[in-house]
């Protein structure tokens, strides 16, 4: 019997290879080489992609910021001040004559009056009788003068006949002249009394606005009674603005101003009409007096704020978002030639709807970070995106 013993291990593989034939054995090295080449190409591609990915990541880490170059703009220089309101020309009104009992008070605070208008009436019964007495004395003096004139005329008619001497004529002429003089004296005394009576009433010295009243009917007033009324001549008001000596040096009469009383939202146009020639040595401030027209909201004794235009000049104007501040003061971030952030300290001026004017620290030609300045740090590299200032 013939028995076939099964082959195992390497002998079996050898039999398989041999049975595969010469064609199969020829393609096996080629397939292995192609596999190795594919692996090499894959490694090369992966190595080329790594720097690009690194570059993209670095680009993503550099933030983009909007920058502006504002240049120079015409900006009004202003001075801010606070102070009290008052009448521009305040007129205290009191007793001019001898005084007496007040019978009527004809005006109230807030009333407009004309020049010479009666504010209060004083009782005058005694003075009226005195005027009547003086008027009667005038009539007596006129009668005496008339009699003296008649006697003189008769004497002149008799002097030609020799009955009256020239000395008698002179005597009668003197008597007539004295009588006429007494008439003039009596007339003057009556006029004086009437003038005194006219000064009994308290009258407005000029047209204006009554501010205060300090008298009541029945009150006895005299030359020592003090101020009974206070008036603003013409109703003109003013603000006594307290200004530091540095700012006061920039102000001139004629500078325009806007006055805003405390407690209201209205502003009133005014004009500086006087700048104090002295400085208070205690607070180093002076007074700029701003004339404003009458308005019910402007009350003497009240408090107000004022913005005074002291002139104009050229300066950079920035949006508020570009200006940062800390304990060192105000600053902005500018972009250098290498696109790195740098801090620039500035001094700000007037803040208006147009933006923040810069007094010093900028020429206006720098590349200034408009927004996102709070998220940047000095020396940080950024990608600037330029935008023209409006």
From TrEMBL:
| Keywords, alphabetical | Coiled coil, Membrane, Transmembrane, Transmembrane helix
Question: Transmembrane ranges?
Answer: 27-45
Against SUPFAM superfamilies, the record matches this protein to: HlyD-like secretion proteins
One annotated GO molecular function: efflux transmembrane transporter activity
Q: Does the keyword Methyltransferase apply?
A: no
Question: What Gene3D superfamilies does its record include?
Answer: 2.40.30.170, 2.40.420.20, 2.40.50.100, Helix hairpin bin
Where the record annotates domain CusB-like beta-barrel, the positions are: 241-309
Q: Which residues form the YknX-like C-terminal permuted SH3-like domain?
A: 317-383
Q: Which positions are tagged coiled coil? A: 131-158
The Gene Ontology CC terms held by the record are: efflux pump complex
Per UniProt, residues of the CzcB-like barrel-sandwich hybrid domain are 99-225
Family assignment?
Belongs to the membrane fusion protein (MFP) (TC 8.A.1) family.
Supply the NCBIfam families for this chain.
Answer: RND_mfp
What is the protein name for this chain? RND family efflux transporter MFP subunit
Which species is listed as the source? Sphingobium cloacae
Upper lineage is: Bacteria, Pseudomonadati, Pseudomonadota, Alphaproteobacteria, Sphingomonadales
